[in-house]
Amino acid sequence: MNAKLVLAQIFAIGAMLVLQGCSSNQLAPATVHNSLTTKVTDYKYLIGPNDTVNIFVWRNPELSGSFIVRPDGQITTSLVEDIAVAGKTPTQLAREMETILSKFIRDPVVTVSVNGFVGPYSEQVRVIGAAAQPQAYPYRQYMTLLDLMIASGGLTEFASGNSSKLVRTVNGKQVSYEVKLDDLIREGDISANVDMLPGDIVIIPEAWF
Fold it and tell me: What was the pLDDT predicted at 25?
């Protein structure tokens, strides 16, 4: 047998083995984050990456300031580095800051406010598929499906709106609900509008012609 042909066969077999080894590697499914909000009246804003946190320490202006939350969900202040803030309410963070600062000053009084309002990824609502602008949006209290569709520019020409699904995490499990977007948007049937909750995903398929 030709030596070159033998080498080519050996190389091909080796390549197949490498590809088989690579194909066996699988990533674990994404972690499912269950929102703390189970109904719209319970909603409290949680701090998220890229939010700006304003920390005011009474009678201590040198310890006060505005801090951008890093992608890892932490901030760095003048006294303490790497304070985890993502996923906390402003009030929770204020009480935690008082505990931290009590090591340096006597009886600190802290107030926290937030600008930016991006929120944690687990709290954002998402629309994917045949929407004009499919993307993630910050959740707002009393946000409805109609509000989300207005923000995303509505349906595309080829969307099958009445075949859409709303996916919601309930007790750690994803549950799918039918939503009638054609009725809501194209027919103006407000009874097809529903409340959104943090972490909801709206999936809009295209129609089959």
Answer: 85
